[in-house]
Amino acid sequence: MTELKEIYGYLKELAPLELAEDWDNPGLLVDCGRPAGRVLTCLDITGPVVREAQEKGCDLVVSHHPVIFRPLKALQEGQVPCLLLKAGISAICMHTNLDAAPGGVNDTLAQWMGLREVEPFAEGMGRIGWIEEMSAHQLAQETARILHARVQWADGGKPIRRLALITGSGGSMLEDAIRAGADALLTGEASHHAALDALAAGVTLVAAGHYATEFPVAQTLATRLGDRFRDLEVLVSETDRDPYHYL
């Protein structure tokens, strides 16, 4: 068994809380006060994820998205923080600090997409690097294949060599990507108007879904924790899924 404070301390080394945005709420959000022998990693802590953690004998869930984000004015039966407490399962959530941290969410996506000479952009949140030259359609196809995602894209009409990416809701970072010299921006979600702006600028915009661009970090967290704590069994959630269905 590993003390919770040791695990939390290590995660804060990986993704210092100082890197988080002011509006965010990362940290040890549910502390049941007991050590952990088995940990579940995920993107979102949902009811099914709590049940999975309970069935698999996990003492801790480590997620990307905070299980408590907006101020709680009351706790009610069935709410996820309440389910965690009743099950005696703690929760550590590393959000925008893990987005920005070296080796975190965006670096994980950059690695999956095969970026070379990777650099940060957008105040450290995004990543930009070089890829083998391809068209917008080819980039969309590669993204769909690598992330197993449904992809939409706005074709900037020129070959893509320099790719910027930012996971989750990163469409608003289009101007930052353009200033960084990107031929394309890959993100999870982007608005209709961001697509129009991309076309006007001659830059390709690829949106692969919030879940698809961020869930890979669950495996990164599992690997890092397993390597650091040899007596800790770390599992990646099998019930943490994209909330959307697609036709």
What's the short version?
The protein is α/β, with parallel strands linked by helices and 247 residues long. It has ten helices and eleven strands.
Termini separation comes to: 45 Å
Corresponding CATH architecture of the largest domain = 3-Layer(aba) Sandwich
| Most strands sheet | 6 strands, mixed
The helix-and-strand class reads alpha/beta
CATH superfamily of the largest domain: NIF3 (NGG1p interacting factor 3)-like
The number of domains: 2
Give helix % range: 25-40%
Order of helices and strands: HEEHEHEHHEEHEEHEHEHHE
| CATH fold call of the largest domain | Udp-n-acetylmuramoylalanyl-d-glutamate--2,6- Diaminopimelate Ligase, Chain: A, domain 1
Query: How is the largest sheet built, in terms of strand order?
Result: 5-6-8-9-10-7
Which consecutive residue ranges, at least 5 long each, have pLDDT under 50?
A: none
CATH class bucket of the largest domain: Alpha Beta
Number of strands: 11
Radius of gyration: 19 Å
Question: Your description of this structure?
Answer:
The protein is of the alpha/beta class and 247 residues long. The protein has two domains: 4-95 and 214-236, NIF3 (NGG1p interacting factor 3)-like (Udp-n-acetylmuramoylalanyl-d-glutamate--2,6- Diaminopimelate Ligase, Chain: A, domain 1); 102-207, NIF3 (NGG1p interacting factor 3)-like (Udp-n-acetylmuramoylalanyl-d-glutamate--2,6- Diaminopimelate Ligase, Chain: A, domain 1, 3-Layer(aba) Sandwich), CATH 3.40.1390. It is built from ten helices and eleven strands. The strands form two sheets. A six-stranded mixed beta sheet has the order 5-6-8-9-10-7, sandwiched between helices. The chain has a five-stranded mixed beta sheet with strand order 1-4-3-2-11, with helices on both faces. The radius of gyration is 19 Å and the shape is elongated.
